[in-house]
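Page 47, continued from p. 46.
Same chain as before, 205 aa.
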Amino acid sequence: MGIEIKDKPRELESGAQIISGNLGKTIQRLRKAYNLSLSELAEQSGVAKSIISQIERNETNPTLATIWRLSQALDVSIERVLSDAEEEAFIEKSTKADTPILVSEDGKMRLAIVGWIKTVEWLQWYAVTSEPGGQLESEGHQRGSVECLSVASGEFEVEVSGVTQRAKAGETLRYRCDRPHTVRCVGNQQGEASMVCILKAAVME
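Result:
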């Protein structure tokens, strides 16, 4: 049965309220994920603090220009900001054949790219395997980037700006990677680790 014409405005208003409510939840969730206050998001987006607060409380219907400014400040697509906050769960599988592999220049260290393509601009992660003596030299990433190397087996060392630190199984090294850095598999055992690179971490002085 179709919707009666006289009920159409009510249906439209209801739909608008749902979208607006989801938008507010999404903006608030992303703002808190970036650990931003209302004032900081206002400064970065050019949208008044009071307006952002009203959006998060579902007390106003922002213009498309306002939504675009907020999405740019939060570094996400406008489609994501407008998407339903209650999206259905999904499960996605990548086969071994679908997983790209990076190999160090010495051929001894391999990095399987297991990160999600949708996060590649700000978050990347890899499954690392290395023969003893394997070495991976990397140029600096963008300013403020941080890398985390969690060792599963063997022993690794990381060198950044002349400072070197080692980690064994069960230990994690976190280091700024916005400057040249080197990862080595030390000792006489094969090493395995997970590496996560946060390209848009807080700027470090």
